[in-house]
Amino acid sequence: MKIAVLSRNPRLYSTRRLVEAGTERGHEMVVIDTLRAYMNIASHKPQIHYRGRPLEGFDAVIPRIGASVTFYGCAVLRQFEMMGVFPLNESVAIARSRDKLRSLQLLSRRGIGLPVTGFAHSPDDIPDLIQMVNGAPLVIKVLEGTQGIGVVLCETEKAAESVIEAFMSLKQDIMVQEYIKEAGGADIRCFVVGEKVIAAMKRQAKPGEFRSNLHRGGSASLIKITPEERMTAIRAAKVMGLHVAGVDLLRSNHGPLVMEVNSSPGLEGIETTTNKDVASIIIQYLEKNGGPNLTRTRGKG
Ligand code: ADP
After folding, report:
1. I need a surface site. Which of 57, 58, 137, 148 has the fewest CB within 10 A?
2. Rounded to two decimals, what is the model's pTM?
3. Which residues are CB-contacts of 277 (< 8 A; sequence separation ≥ 6)?
4. Does residue 90 line the site of ligand 1, with CB under 6 A?
5. Domain ranges of the chain
6. How much is the pLDDT for 297?
7. What positions does the entry give for Mg(2+) 2 binding (predicted)?
């Protein structure tokens, strides 16, 4: 197959591993810098140009679209879909997953366990918003945050009120969430490929920290997940319409709670922790399911 990897940087671990695994399995792998792809959207025959030439003959495309380039990246991916190229994850699913509130609303509609979460716009509604999530301690999250930045634990309601007011005055959209204390500063990353959890790891926050992000000093280890956790991760990816997803779970007293569904999950942490060849599993998924004109939406949606 001829497979495009949409990525800003060929040297990133995930991009490198996907190219390596694809090449090993006999495919032609081409890394395309998402922001350097350009297109004529009014043409009858959709095309993408890259460094002065049209991109042609691709069977599949692997989007590795960073949060900061979601808008343009999804447009490029959509153009590939209009050309009949099979996407590992479809543009509509990626765009959906990047909207944190919309994602939680979709997941809750399907009865998937979530931490109690509130969202408001006006400072006048803060006291009731705090009561909605059962008071302090609670977690406040900036909607656009990544890698744990903008995630704040407030031990008291007074502190929560002040922090929410501060974010609102800075015009930052936030959500307020019950604090799952019993998770003990740990979360579980389930790596889903085609309705299977193919690898899972536990991330533990460093002492004195509740955020388990590796970027915040957390450490990763192997974990055996329960059948309920497995089922929850698979269902969450499916509700979001993602073939490949990193589903983050918190272990609560009343079962697994989904924190986030990531549409471009990184490979480095999961491969080094579990010793699994995740990149190769992704390529095998494309071999089995990819091919021209097999995309479900062809960019509609
Ligand atoms: P980001 O997307 O920036 O990584 P997350 O929402 O994943 O932000 O939060 C970062 C970390 O904080 C999580 O990995 C988890 O360890 C911890 N955390 C987030 N929300 C909660 C919560 N409601 N209860 C307990 N811990 C949480």
Report:
1. 57
2. 0.95
3. 21, 271
4. no
5. 1-88, 95-110+180-262, 115-178
6. 64
7. 260, 262
Residue 209, annotated as binding a ligand = no
Tell whether 99 is in a known binding site.
Answer: no
* HSE-CB of 141 using CA atoms within 13 angstroms: 22
Kindly report the CATH number that applies to the domain delimited by 95-110+180-262. Answer: 3.30.470.20
Closest ligand 1 atom, CA of 139?
23
Residues 39, 43: Cα–Cα separation, whole Å: 9
Rounded to the nearest angstrom, the distance between the alpha carbon of 47 and the centre of ligand 1 is 40
Superfamily of chain region 115-178: ATP-grasp fold, A domain (3.30.1490.20)
**pLDDT of 235:** 98
Residue 75: CA count within 13 A, CB half-sphere: 10
Which residue numbers in the chain have pLDDT < 70? 295-301
User: At a CB cut-off of 8 Å and minimum separation 6, what does 13 contact?
Assistant: 266, 267, 268
Centroid of ligand 1 to alpha carbon of 194 (angstroms): 25
Going from the Cα of 151 to the center of ligand 1, the distance in angstroms, rounded, reads 7
pLDDT at 258: 98
